[in-house]
Amino acid sequence: xxxxxxxxxxxxxxxxxxxxxxxxxxxxxxxxxxxxxxxxxxxxxxxxxxxxxxxxxxxxxxxxxxxxxxxxxx
Length: 74
Prior knowledge:
Layout: E1 10-17, E2 23-29, E3 32-38, H1 41-53, H2 55-65, E4 69-72
Antiparallel strand pairs: 1-2, 2-3, 3-4
Helix pairs in contact: 1-2
């Protein structure tokens, strides 16, 4: 009747600001590494605050402000 939900694990690996003002945020989502390019420092700080208590909302915030996403094969 009810589907069992998979738990979302979110881990911030690194955040780096480049010369053009873009933030490169590397995170682990359920053991897969993803890289997001975020133009806003506000979005990066808000992501950090939300990631501990609300990982789903924090991930949606990154997707909203994302310029380009790429999956890193490991």
